[in-house]
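Hi all, a correction to my earlier message: I attached the wrong file for 3-hydroxybutyrate dehydrogenase. Here's the right sequence:
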Amino acid sequence: MFLKGKSAIITGSTSGIGLAYAKVFAAEGASVVINGFGDAAAIEKERAALEATSGARALYDAADMTDPAAIAALVRRCHGELGGPDIIVNNAGIQHVAPIEDFPADKFEAIIKINLTSAWYMMQAAVPYMKAAKWGRIISTASAHSLVASPNKSAYVMAKHGIAGLTKTIALETATDGITVNCISPGYVWTPLVEGQIPDTMKARGLTREQVLNDVLLSAQPTKEFVTPEQVAALALFLCRDEAKSITGANLSVDGGWTAA
Ligand code: NAD
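and the right structure:
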């Protein structure tokens, strides 16, 4: 249990990849703060299960990642109730698929706020605590779309490229403070976020569900398999180990070979 005594905040962890991060940190004894939206009873069940796994505390905080004040309050709450934060994972994200001329401005603004700006505010709030502790791990879920583009995802690709730049910058700013800052860039991971974009992609490209799965999503991935949330979380856990302390400012692909092509 190498994370015993440490605390981790994982944004957007009520489902998908975020919940997988929370589970691996809890399994190593960390106290965790989960965040995101969803059914209250289902969230409480996950929270209680995390506490049972870790033997430490697990909190749920409903901070909306579009709200900088709520983000700062989330970090202060973690510090007050659990200590740290020692680990932050910027993971909350949404998607919208449409050509630029049809892209609703409110969707564009929401994607930039949730997928990109929130990570800047999280880092601004957490770095002073990490510097004082002389230890910290900052991990962001970027995407293969931090390295390459796809049509009809202008806001998402813009946000994820931004995460890659933010990662490099804060890695340089914290390099002598015992803090590492990295992003993980998954290819297609089977989660509610991917499921949700299938109808829009069918509409935008005039395709059937099967065509979207095989000709759009998995066509990019040479392995022809979806990445799993557990594979992404395993890399995040490794980044928290002392053996990973020289990995900083990196953008690590877990994409079945997508960006090698
Ligand atoms: P998901 O839809 O399962 O999870 C998204 C999480 O973000 C949920 O917990 C949701 O409640 C939360 N969220 C949404 N809006 C929020 C807000 N305003 N404030 C707080 N939380 C909010 O999706 P996922 O696939 O697990 O995605 C997680 C991250 O991984 C995202 O950043 C996504 O861009 C990235 N990613 C996903 C894939 C993929 O194929 N699924 C690939 C690459 C990167």
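Sorry for the mix-up. The chain has one domain: 7-189+228-249.
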